[in-house]
Amino acid sequence: MKLALVQMDVQIGEPEKNYQKAQHFLKEAMAQNPDMIIFPEMWNTGYALEQADEVADIDGKRTRELFSEFAKQHHVTIVGGSVLYKDSQSGDVTNTMLVFDEKGNEVIRYDKLHLFRLMDEHLYLKAGNAFGLFDYKGTTVGTMICYDLRFPFLFRKLVGSGAKLLINTAQWPSARVDHWRTLVISRAIENQSYMIAVNRCGTSRDTAFPGNSMVVDPWGEVLLEGDSNEQIYFVDIDLAKVDAIRKRIPVFDDQRFDLY
């Protein structure tokens, strides 16, 4: 399975520029015929939360049109990172991931479960209330967004629901890149799953973002660790390795649910 990780800079509060860039990266990614293209968190607007009324994607219309049509035309699965999304009826604003299969069908909408107080998400956004799970050709994929990475019980729930491939899309800052790296590797090892972590790069309002997108296999081996440049990373993974590792060290069979 070939993955394309889109590590992009994001222009805060400028959706027009960001959608144009996303379209460019989609076309560039197809030069290597990936099975799945993955974007970072909030790539359409950045953290322009106070401008949500002006810049959020209303009902996800623009994002759906871009990704659904491209996925169908090129027979590729697109994990749409996340976008600033506004519901036209309720007025709710969410940090929302949309995923489209190779036929252009929307397979999940996932709203970020854990809102990050340091970025005032709790003041502007509504938290999600459902897990992000979808099927990719017989393999269950679990999704989460940025801060969700810090909550290990979420990952156990996803794996308990059958997930073998875990995807986190983020705007994780350089100031905490050591946490990022440690958590991504840990989540892969403790859940015996592939961990795909796609982060943005560049700067926004004096905050630097390191890129440092990662792919870690279920044994904890780092298959990819990106630099700070804006680019697409391509990685091949073998999903059969998940079952092999879980058979070798059967942690899920040995869990003591009677105690914890």
Automatic annotation (TrEMBL):
CN hydrolase domain ranges (all copies): 1-239
CDD domains the record matches: nitrilase_5
A Pfam cross-reference name: CN_hydrolase
Superkingdom of this protein's organism: Bacteria
Keyword annotations of the record: Hydrolase
Single Gene Ontology MF annotation: hydrolase activity
Family annotation (InterPro entries): C-N_Hydrolase (IPR003010), C-N_Hydrolase_sf (IPR036526), UPF0012_CS (IPR001110)
TM ranges: none
Family membership noted in the UniProt record: Belongs to the carbon-nitrogen hydrolase superfamily. NIT1/NIT2 family.
Name of the protein described by the UniProt record: Hydrolase
Species of the source: Effusibacillus dendaii
